[in-house]
Design brief:
By secondary structure, the protein is an all-alpha fold. It has helices at about 5-15, 20, 30-35, 45-55, 65-75, 80-90, 100-120, 120-135, 140-155, 160-175, 180-195, 200-220, 220-240, 240-255, 260-275, 280-295, 300-315, 320-335, 345-365, 365-385, 390-405, 410-425. The N and C termini lie far apart (about 55 Å).
Length: about 425
C-alpha cells in the first residue's frame, strides 16, 4: 500500500472519522487528499498521523508473517482433519507477525473466513465477511478473488445455492492468472456442485469436468472422487444412466482406498442411491449397508436418510424382516441423540425423521398414519427441495394403497402425480 492507502486502512480499522484523525494536525480536506494519493504529507505531519493511529512510519518487510499466512492458507485448501486445522490456528492466531504489516494482515483476515466455515463457526464467518467488506478497496486482485470465493462458500453452507453460484461466477471473472491450479480447480468444483443444486446441470457438468481434469493432473484423490460423484449426478439428470454408473464406480474405486470415513460414506451412499433409482435393489442394499459402517456419529440426518433408503430397498424386494431390522437400528441411533425436532437448526434432521416415521407406520401396517404424514409433511418437503424421485416414489406407493382400498379415483390421481414427478426427474415436458 502507498502512504495514503495505508493511513486510510488503519483509520478505518480503528473506526475513526476523517475529522477525528486530522484533528490537531491539518484539515480533514487535506487528509482526504493524502488518502486519495493526491498529496504527500510532510514528515512532521506523517509522524503525527502515525502516532495517532499507533503505527510505524513505514511498513516493514515481514517474510515470517508471509510464510505463516501462506502455510495457513495451504492447510485450508483441501482440509481432511478439522482437529489439526484447529490446532494450527490456535498456534498462530495471536502471532504478532500476522498483524505486523497490512498485506499479511489482510490475507490472514480473509483466510479466517474460510477457517470459520470449515470449522462450522458460521457466526464468526458472517462477522468476518461483514468486517472485510469494509476493506475491499485495499485488497489486491488475488485477495479480492478469495474474498468472493469464500463468501460463496459461506452462502453454499447456508443452502443459499443461487447466491453462492452467483458469487462463484463473479469470482471466476476476477480470478488472477497467478492463482494455482489447485485453487482454480477448487473454484470450478464449487461452481459444479452449486450448479447441480440450482438445477443448472449443463453448467454443473462443464465445471465438474474442468475441475476433474485439474485434480487428476495435480493428483488430489479426495477431490477426484467428489468430481466423479458430481458428474454422475449430472448424468442422472440427463438420463445417461450408464455413464452415471461408470462415474459412481470410479468414485467408489478411488474412495475405498482413502482413509476418509465421511468420503467413503458419501461414495457408498451415492452409489446405493443410484442403484436404487435404477431398480437394482440388491446392489443398493449392499452399498447402503456399507455406507452405514462409515457414517460419523455427528451426521445423524445423513444416517437416518440412509436407513430410509435402505428400508425402501428392502420393501421393494418384499423383505419386511430386514426392513424392520433397519427400523430398529435407526430408532436406536435417533433415541441415543435425543434431538429437539422443533429447533430451526435441526430442520434437515426433522425432514428425514418424518420420512423414517412414515416408513415405520407403513411397516406396522398403519396405512392411515402413513397417508397422513405423507400428505401433511413429506410431500411439501420433497416439493420444496425439488426431490422429484422421492415424490414419484411416494405418490406411486400411495396410489397402490388407494387401489387396494378401492379408492380408484384417488389412486388414479396419485399415479398420475407419480408419473409427472418421474418426468420432472428427466426434464420431460
Amino acid at each position: 500500500m502507498d502512504t495514503g492507502m495505508r493511513l486510510k486502512y488503519h483509520r478505518l480499522k480503528k473506526r475513526l472519522s476523517m475529522e477525528e484523525t486530522a484533528s490537531g494536525i491539518f484539515s480533514p480536506k487535506d487528509l482526504k487528499k493524502i488518502e486519495a494519493g493526491l498529496k504527500e504529507p510532510s514528515l512532521k505531519d506523517l509522524e503525527a498521523l502515525c502516532k495517532k493511529l499507533e503505527i510505524p512510519l513505514a511498513a516493514k518487510d515481514n517474510p515470517i508473517g508471509k510464510v505463516l499466512v501462506k502455510n495457513f492458507k495451504n492447510s485450508l485448501l483441501h482440509p481432511q482433519n478439522k482437529g489439526k486445522i484447529m490446532e494450527h490456528y490456535a498456534d498462530i492466531c495471536n502471532h504478532p507477525l500476522l498483524r505486523a504489516d497490512e498485506d499479511v494482515e489482510l490475507e490472514f483476515d480473509i483466510q479466517q473466513i474460510r477457517y470459520f466455515i470449515i470449522t462450522g463457526d458460521l457466526e464468526s464467518a458472517e462477522k468476518k465477511i461483514k468486517e472485510m467488506d469494509r476493506f475491499k478497496e485495499f485488497m489486491d486482485q488475488e485477495q479480492y478473488y478469495l474474498y468472493h470465493k469464500y463468501n460463496g462458500n459461506y452462502n453454499y453452507i447456508l443452502n443459499d445455492y443461487e447466491n453462492a453460484l452467483k458469487i462463484y461466477l463473479i469470482a471466476e471473472k476476477i480470478a488472477p492468472k497467478s492463482i494455482s491450479a489447485a485453487e482454480i480447480g477448487d473454484l470450478y468444483y464449487s461452481i459444479g456442485i452449486s450448479s447441480n443444486q440450482c438445477e443448472e446441470h449443463e453448467l454443473a457438468y462443464k465445471y465438474s469436468e474442468l475441475a476433474l481434469k485439474i485434480y487428476q493432473q495435480e493428483f488430489v484423490p479426495k477431490r477426484i472422487v467428489e468430481c466423479h460423484l458430481n458428474i454422475a449426478i449430472t448424468h442422472e439428470h440427463f438420463g445417461n444412466y450408464k455413464l452415471s454408473l461408470e462415474h459412481h464406480k470410479n468414485a467408489l474405486t478411488i474412495g475405498s482406498k482413502l482413509d476418509i470415513d465421511i468420503l467413503k460414506f458419501t461414495t457408498e451412499y451415492n452409489v446405493g442411491f443410484s442403484n436404487f433409482i435404477y431398480q437394482q435393489y440388491e446392489e443398493a442394499i449392499l452399498h447402503l449397508n456399507n455406507a452405514l459402517k462409515y457414517i460419523p456419529d455427528e451426521y445423524l440426518a445423513d444416517c437416518v436418510s440412509t436407513y430410509c433408503l435402505l428400508i425402501r430397498s428392502y420393501l421393494e424386494i418384499n423383505d419386511k424382516v430386514k426392513a424392520k431390522e433397519a427400523i430398529e437400528a435407526g430408532s436406536k441411533k435417533i433415541k441415543a441423540k435425543d434431538i429437539a425436532l422443533n429447533s430451526p437448526a435441526n430442520s434437515s434432521f426433522r425432514n428425514v425423521y418424518m420420512e423414517f416415521i412414515a416408513l415405520t407406520y407403513l411397516l406396522e401396517g398403519n396405512e392411515t398414519e402413513f397417508e397422513n404424514i405423507l400428505l401433511k409433511e413429506l410431500i411439501k418437503t420433497f416439493e420444496e427441495s425439488n426431490s422429484f424421485h422421492d415424490l414419484g416414489y411416494y405418490f406411486g406407493y400411495l396410489g397402490k394403497i388407494y387401489f387396494r382400498q378401492s379408492r380408484y379415483k384417488e389412486s388414479a390421481i396419485m399415479l398420475e402425480k407419480s408419473k409427472d414427478a418421474y418426468k420432472a426427474v428427466l426434464n420431460i415436458s
